[in-house]
């Protein structure tokens, strides 16, 4: 009289039970925690979500490199990259290993099935990475590189500066100690939005949050210089002069760079103006 | 061939008579339609994530349906006491094995093709043109993959109970599909050289990332490879059945 029940029937049941749990969870906690309840995947996976998020972030990287994960992807040659209009750091060639066919026939067949040239997604295909960035950021809100990379692509490739700002602001709320997020926000306000007041705020915040060990000297100079530029554009000349001088003082005496010369020029013009 | 085909037809009817296929179809449809309407930062025509999800669903459900169908064929004949009647006169044991396998494979292949057409329709609607040459090759090689899996489950069904057979077949399938090319160590060498390499038949990456189709020579080789393994598994099943007292 008993009927055998196939395992496949349990899938809808499990899904239904899952959705019911979330529904109840939301109802119970509606008054206590108004924010963050839209993150259903994060709730399903719990702390495993971080690992899944990291995997998805790597998957986005694989997508950019034609679908193959490191170290299986073939090397990117100078010619291939040249055809795409740019050549990346040549050291990348040393890091990527070609999927060499090994001696036995099984490896050779596998190699033939998986063989393809190394290419980077063209501009019209770069959107294919976005679902993985979105999922990676959602599943692991503490993954600062994923937040920065998602914002970078949205801003640079898709002209979605507002979406990039939204991601970075949420990232800053989830990672209040991450100066990189403030620096990225400041760059978008400074270069894309021309909103120098907000740029100044975030450059100052980035410098305040960054401990001395976190920043290379060049990055500290760069942030300080941009803080000075923001102040200058806002007409806060005294504060700008102070910031330019601070940036200038970070250089070694014998070090001569175009940026150092630019800063020297800015200081002179502000001093003359005074 | 008539008795073989008659047996096969019964198995094919079985898959469409049971609810498993329809549950899988509805589940794939619901997940695909839900995934297709997702928006990412208001950027339109993003399709590769959908292909990734869709192909995974289509492949997984097709394998599960085929394995469960093939695995329960012989044990259910024993349980219903129809095996003795079938094998007493009208059909030889070798043909019984082939008929059961062929039915399981064709039933699984039909289910797969229906799922695949649904997937292609949703993916095309979402993102426009798909690489047709690679789409055909992906389907063809997966059919070869299903053929080997059906033969494996069918062959094992003469040795194992249904649940043991389903577990062993799926574990071996997942093991060889995911880690087949890395099982070269001394401890795994037997598995590496003896078991079928299911990863050979997986062209999903080529299809999703537009790497282009593989060569005709390689397709021919993989067809022969699948045929050899199918014959080996069916022979194992036939050998056991020859010695099986009903």
Task: Write up what this structure looks like.
Chain A is mostly helical. Helices cover 65% and strands 0% of the residues of chain A. Chain A has helices at 10-29, 40-45, 48-64, 78-83, 91-95, 105-114, 130-139, 144-156, 161-174, 179-193, 196-209, 217-234, 237-249, 258-273. In chain A, helix 3 runs antiparallel to helix 7, helix 8 runs antiparallel to helix 9 (161-174) and helix 9 (161-174) runs antiparallel to helix 10. Mean pLDDT of chain A is 80; it is low at 32-37 and 85-99. Helix content of chain B is 76%, strand content 0%. Chain B has helices at 2-17, 20-36, 48-79, 83-88, 93-127, 132-156, 162-179, 189-194, 204-208, 216-243. Chain B contains ten helices and no strands. Chain B is mainly alpha-helical.
Give a quick rundown of the structure:
The complex is a heterodimer of chains A (274) and B (246). Helices cover 65% and strands 0% of the residues of chain A.
CATH topology of the domain at 177-274 in chain A: Serine Threonine Protein Phosphatase 5, Tetratricopeptide repeat
What CATH architecture of the domain at 177-274 in chain A would you give? Alpha Horseshoe
**Cα radius of gyration of chain B in angstroms:** 19 Å
Give the number of helices of chain A. 14
- Report the mean per-residue pLDDT of chain A as an integer: 80
Proportion of β residues of chain B? under 5%
Q: Summarize the helix and strand pattern of chain B as letters.
A: HHHHHHHHHH
Order of helices and strands of chain A: HHHHHHHHHHHHHH
Give helix % range of chain A: 55-70%
What's the CATH H-level superfamily name of the domain at 177-274 in chain A?
Tetratricopeptide repeat domain
Outline of chain B, from the CA principal axes? globular
- Level-1 CATH class name of the domain at 177-274 in chain A: Mainly Alpha
Q: What class, by secondary structure content of chain B? A: mainly alpha
| Count, helices of chain B | 10
Low-confidence stretches of chain B: none
End-to-end separation of chain A: 98 Å
Largest sheet of chain A: none
Shape, per Cα inertia axes of chain A: extended
Helix content of chain B: over 70%
- How would a crystallographer describe the biggest sheet of chain B? none
Annotation, overall tally of beta strands of chain B? 0
